[in-house]
Amino acid sequence: MATIYEVSKLVGVSVATVSRVINGSTRVSDKTRQKVLSAMQALDYKPNPIAQSLATNRSDCVGVLVPEVHGPVFGAMLSGIEAELRDAGKFTIFATGHNLEAKEREAIRFLNTRNCDALIMHVEALADASIHRQAHNGPPILIMNRVVSGLEDRCISLDNEHGGYIATNMLLEMGHREIAYISGPLAWGDASDRLAGHRRALEEHGLELDERLVIESNFHEVGGSEAMEELLRRELPFSAVVCANDEMAAGAMDTLRARGTSIPDEVSLVGFDNAPLSRYLYPKLSTVNYPITEMGRMAAHWVLENVYGQSGTAIQHVFKPSLVMRASAGRSPN
Amino acid sequence: MATIYEVSKLVGVSVATVSRVINGSTRVSDKTRQKVLSAMQALDYKPNPIAQSLATNRSDCVGVLVPEVHGPVFGAMLSGIEAELRDAGKFTIFATGHNLEAKEREAIRFLNTRNCDALIMHVEALADASIHRQAHNGPPILIMNRVVSGLEDRCISLDNEHGGYIATNMLLEMGHREIAYISGPLAWGDASDRLAGHRRALEEHGLELDERLVIESNFHEVGGSEAMEELLRRELPFSAVVCANDEMAAGAMDTLRARGTSIPDEVSLVGFDNAPLSRYLYPKLSTVNYPITEMGRMAAHWVLENVYGQSGTAIQHVFKPSLVMRASAGRSPN
DNA sequence: GAGTATGATGTAACCGCTTTCACAGCATGG
DNA sequence: CCATGCTGTGAAAGCGGTTACATCATACTC
Fold first, then answer.
1. Which stretches in chain A have pLDDT values below 50?
2. Which strand ranges, in their side-by-side order, compose the sheet holding B240-243?
3. B48, B89, B93: residue with CB nearest A92
4. Chains A and B: how many Cβ contacts under 8 Å?
5. pLDDT at position A36, please?
6. B119 SS3 class
7. CA distances from B144 to B125, B200, B267, B273, B323 (A)
8. In this predicted structure, what is the pLDDT of residue A26?
9. What pLDDT is recorded for position A228?
10. pLDDT at position A201, please?
11. CA B22 to chain centre
12. Which range, of A171-175, B55-59, B225-229, averages the lowest pLDDT?
């Protein structure tokens, strides 16, 4: 690989001048610039990014910390992030935290050693205090799907309350009155916000939330199945069920089908996330769209703007989910 | 951040000695080593990886090129790669090629500028010649899901022929004789290999492949739907359908259900990949397992062994798929 | 025409680490 | 007792860039 020295020798200028051409920062006479550029071309010269990093203390790398790489949500998020950063010539390095505090902490340390210029992180286990610490000591960070107080301008999140609201509201407008709810772990902000939206929708329709129709589960398919079984065991009437994510809805659907319950004729079902699986279920699942790819893109934009100084679009910190109507929800049979 | 100089000053030795301690390569007296180590601890010193890279001409980064980041197959593959590399303290940088030659080429260039120590790539559009060129000029490469002649020891792939074979064989053993086949684009090696396996299974049972029962499609859900429609239009009898991937099987299932055909009572359906969606379909899809996460891990192992000189497990270049029996396939009704 | 601002370029230090080479000190063998 | 061979360590030259500062023409001002 050619170095900057060979270029400078070929042209007969100093390396400083070549560097100036590369970076386009200071003025260089047009004639010199042209000569340098063609020499660079002739030698197929590419600046060594490692050396540049060392000299500038920037790495052009953005670290991304997600719970998992695969899966509909994180995969889509990574996809959005990578696309944007790549367009801007930045590198995406990722690490997984598995929603475990120790792992998340270790992953951050790992990414820090790489001198990332910024960190985009989706962490669940890490406490706010740790995030604050990281925000003040390390490189700039952007937090996904979580609002950390005091760092609101560093967060990009979904309006989960609104999502919960529109799901239930839709069912109410279809005539349902007895609506069960299968929730995620209420210790997590997204789960409790979604439930809050559900409650608000009910209240706006003059109904009160019946705690007995709410089951706290774990966002997993099996959890959804079990939650539905528990619900049936309680022998309370309901004509619709809102599930706090699509996976639990899939589990709930399985259980209902095993009982021979017809969806949506006897029970309507609504999910949350609009994960790919929601289209594969039968009947296809009505759900709340989670624009995670766009949110990933937005995170990348934030970094490009705030770390690399590229002017861009305005940053949207809170995204509104929207309803996706499919076959699993219909009018109330009553 | 503390530098190696501060450590050396604190201990009263030269930076060379500190470096020796860091790298553990040359002998250092125990006493000195201990002093250096505790000084490093006291200063919370971490070697700057960028500087190390510049000096050693290694980046500790492995580039991964995939068509897409999300999706069941690539997400799972990335997951396996990241887990292994991370354990070894290596960084994973990824880029997407979207199966377009120009994009793949550009992504490789992009990763090359980062001085990756190795490239793991899953490319479809790039011609063998280009891959050979890259293999000889750039950093070591490992090719996923494709066998490039002359570079077999650099490839990790699935025995697609075997996969096609076991799928059809299972149906034959269940008494099916008229088996339709919805294929992926036959220009792609994996698609044609799967079909070849299908053909071999038939032949081993004394049957000949009926070309009219084979439809070439595109590996997508809609394609599967349309292929099934075309198949039905041909009005040939068949009691089972093998689809070359799960997505097409999902589409085919939709079409059959729309016609009121019962699965598996009237028609058995088998997919390929064992993607998550296969479990969400109704009835749950019997399919051929594609151990993509393990293959990703293996790719990482190859890199660790051949590039970083870590001794490890033996490298398995060809993986055997296996059958996953679920509800969508049953005995022939005849 | 002297003084001065301005633009283009060169010089050299520096980023933080690795590694070759030299050398001192000490044990060993004849 | 001297030649020899190890061991442990230091000095210094890179790795390939960036950039503060110096320098030198040149153009402009009065």
1. none
2. B214-216, B179-183, B240-243, B268-270
3. B93
4. 94
5. 92
6. strand
7. 13, 25, 34, 15, 21
8. 75
9. 97
10. 98
11. 35
12. B55-59
CA distances in angstroms from B255 to B193, B248, B252, listed in the order given: 26, 11, 5
State the best of B3, B4, B45, B69 to mutate against chain A, taking most chain A CBs within 10 Å: B69
| Residue B275 contacts A where some CB pair is shorter than 8 Å | no
How far is residue A57's CA from residue A257's CA, in Å, rounded to a whole number?
59
Q: CA–CA separation, B27 vs A252, rounded Å?
A: 63
The predicted pLDDT at position B17 comes to: 93
Write down the pTM of the prediction: 0.87
- For residue A298, give both structure tokens: 């937005």
Q: Which superfamily does A160-290 belong to?
A: Response regulator (3.40.50.2300)
Q: Measured between CB atoms, does B83 come within 8 Å of chain A? A: yes
Give me the CATH topology for the region A60-158.
Rossmann fold (3.40.50)
Q: What is the pLDDT of residue B267?
A: 97
φ and ψ at residue B250, rounded to 5 degrees: -60, -45
Which CATH fold would you assign to the domain A4-47? 434 Repressor (Amino-terminal Domain) (1.10.260)
Average the pLDDT over each of A53-57, B15-19, B88-92, B188-192 and give the range with the smallest value. Answer: B88-92
Pairing of β B322-324 and β B287-289: antiparallel
Q: Considering only CA atoms, which of A235, A189, A195, A246 is closest in space to residue A212?
A: A235
